[in-house]
Amino acid sequence: MKRCIVTLITLTALAFTPAWSQAATSGERTVEESYLQDPLETMIIREQAYSDSKDMKLVALQYITQSLDEGRAGPEVRKALDYLATESSMTIVRAGGVGRALNNYPDVRREACLLLGQIKTVEAKDTLLKVALVDTEPMVIAAAIRSIGKIGLMTGDDVTQTIAFVVNRFDILFPDNSLAFESLVALEALADANNGIKDPAAIRAIMKIADGNYITPVRQKAKDLLSKLRKYSASSSGAGK
Q1: Distance CA 229, CA 218 (A)
Q2: Do 50 and 109 belong together in one domain?
Q3: Cross-strand bridge partners of residue 101
Q4: Which one of 48, 200, 205, 216 has the largest count of C-beta atoms within 10 Å of its C-beta?
Q5: Claim to verify: residue 199 and residue 107 sit in the same structural domain
């Protein structure tokens, strides 16, 4: 009887050994390992994101990029990106309380906005809308708008009206070709995801770019988008008959 038990235990161990070895050599983690390691990784990302050091913030973005690539983007990762994308526009830390901003890192905010575009949730969209409205750096706003288009969520006119507001705001102050182009790309992506755009403010913004003081490729992009939106409108009208 004892010999039978020993034999059974040995066979069981042999049966699981190849699978264990394969997982170990392939770098795969079991559910238990993921559960134990992810909280530590999340803590590291959070501490780096909230650090005063720009270098630590950049390292946090690298960790977050890896997490997104591996499909491990939990709520804490999004919260870290929310903070990095809005840090100096929402909370400004100044030297001596009145001096220059110590946490103004546009490149960090831009990268955080681009990564938020991979988290296709309402929360990520809302953060990007805030950035588009309150940030002052065109490259950060352009990244936020690009990601808004990638997310593609549009339940009302809040998204298109925000983009239209940004276009009008910079058109009055100083036309920015990159920002205008990203706005057009985002509006096109939103139109493709939602069978067109019916917001008059967005249409007027596209027309302003088409006839505005922008380089030829940007103006042509606006004209092409207007033509595409007309086709969506015609298709929608035909379907409703």
Answers
A1: 17
A2: yes
A3: 94
A4: 205
A5: no
pLDDT digits (tens, 9 = 90+) for 103-116: 689 999 999 999 99
Q: Are residues 189 and 174 in the same domain?
A: yes
What is the distance, to the nearest Å, from the Cα of residue 205 to the centroid of all Cα atoms in its chain?
23
> Would 65 be classed as within a structural domain?
yes
Cα distance between residue 67 and residue 115, in whole Å: 11
CA 140, distance to chain mean position in Å, is 12
3-state class of 101 per DSSP?
A: strand
Which residue type, as a one-letter code, is found at position 16?
F
Specify the length of the chain in residues: 241
Judge contact between 101 and 94, C-beta under 8 A: yes
Distance CA 120, CA 151 (A): 5
Query: What residues have CB less than 8 Å from 189, skipping those under 6 apart?
Result: 149, 150, 152
User: Could you give the number of structural domains in the chain?
Assistant: 2
- Which of 158, 118, 113, 159 is closest to 139 using CA atoms? 113
pTM: 0.76
Q: What's at 135, amino acid-wise?
A: D
